[in-house]
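[recover] target loaded
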């Protein structure tokens, strides 16, 4: 029998999973900690006095058994291109709410395709419960509310502190797929670093390039705005390097090349230290425009992306635990919790609202 408040974090041995366990315990939660490495999972469980469950997502029966009495799983084990489907399959069978922290467009699309199944099972399916895509999705929803007839949406972010190994490996996978944008409501392929432009932060220009961020999928579900582009702030030299990779794109998706690049990531990338996370922040820009040329803009300052991911995902967990009044189905963060959800998170500040006049700090 499922306990309405019994929940699990899967992938606790990864960088974000460990941070999430620590914060959950600090808040007084007692999640089940889970993953596929018995020694590592049990060590984390012992550190915090928590129940441990060890299972591999490649074993469907084991996943179903592990989730049989669990009301909600927060899935933190990427790359989600490989791990999302088996976890979601089991959640649909065991009627377990499914949350993850992906930023991968194809994972969002695959989860959305199972909306009808989620409704029948009575569970919430919400991928992207972290920095990908909580702040940008909420900004998109704020802009839609301010400009209901918007036809174009631009989202952008600057993330300080550097990536974890899992994030970096997901980026490696993305290189082989190229860029994507929304045009006329449809996702279309575009070259890597298809466009570049600048955004202003504190009166200083930040160069940025288009990337295949999750909002290319989710912002359309949240707002219905047909044309969507997402940018990431990077140095001009990085834009040049990414564009040179266009010539190699057919090779970048090959298995041996992917394995080589991911092995290098695994060996070199460990994720930002506590000091680095504390010393860095993130910034989000949003712009909406209608057919008449009217514009609305929003800017947000947030903590480091990993700290925001932990707080945002746990906030969604807390919203769902013990509640029976949330209809099942696929959700984006703003569809479940509203456009202002991001503003409720620690350290998030609205720098510019959609009703603010232009200023030198504007984008």
């Amino acid at each position: 029998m499922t306990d309405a408040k019994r929940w699990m974090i899967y992938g606790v041995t990864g960088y974000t999973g460990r941070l999430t366990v620590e914060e959950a315990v600090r808040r007084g939660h007692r999640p089940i900690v889970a993953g596929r490495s018995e020694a590592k999972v049990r060590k984390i469980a012992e550190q915090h006095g928590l129940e441990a469950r060890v299972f591999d997502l490649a074993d469907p029966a084991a996943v179903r058994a592990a989730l049989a009495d669990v009301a909600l799983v927060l899935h933190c084990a990427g790359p989600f291109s490989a791990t999302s489907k088996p976890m979601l399959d089991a959640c649909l069978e065991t009627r377990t709410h499914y949350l993850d922290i992906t930023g991968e467009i194809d994972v969002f699309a695959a989860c959305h395709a199972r909306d009808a199944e989620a409704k029948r099972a009575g569970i919430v399916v919400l991928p992207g419960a972290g920095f990908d895509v909580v702040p940008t999705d909420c900004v998109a929803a704020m802009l839609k509310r301010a400009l209901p007839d918007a036809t174009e949406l631009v989202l952008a972010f600057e993330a300080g502190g550097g990536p974890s190994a899992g994030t970096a490996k997901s980026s490696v996978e993305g290189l082989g797929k190229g860029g994507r944008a929304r045009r006329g409501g449809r996702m279309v392929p575009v070259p890597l670093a298809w466009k570049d432009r600048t955004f202003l932060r504190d009166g200083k220009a930040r160069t940025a390039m288009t990337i295949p961020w999750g909002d290319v999928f989710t912002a359309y579900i949240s707002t219905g705005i047909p044309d969507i582009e997402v940018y990431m702030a990077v140095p001009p030299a990085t834009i040049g390097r990414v564009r040179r990779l266009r010539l190699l794109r057919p090779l970048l998706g090959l298995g041996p090349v992917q394995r080589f690049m991911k092995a290098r990531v695994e060996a070199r990338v460990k994720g930002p230290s506590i000091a680095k996370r504390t010393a860095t922040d993130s910034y989000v820009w949003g712009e909406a425009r209608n057919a008449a040329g009217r514009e609305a803009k929003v800017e947000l300052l947030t903590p480091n992306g990993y700290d925001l991911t932990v707080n945002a995902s746990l906030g969604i967990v807390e919203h769902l635990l013990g509640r029976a009044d949330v209809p099942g189905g696929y959700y984006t963060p703003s569809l479940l919790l509203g456009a202002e959800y991001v503003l409720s998170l620690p350290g998030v500040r609205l720098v510019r609202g959609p009703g603010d006049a232009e200023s030198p700090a504007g984008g």
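[recover] notes: The longest helix spans residues 305-320.
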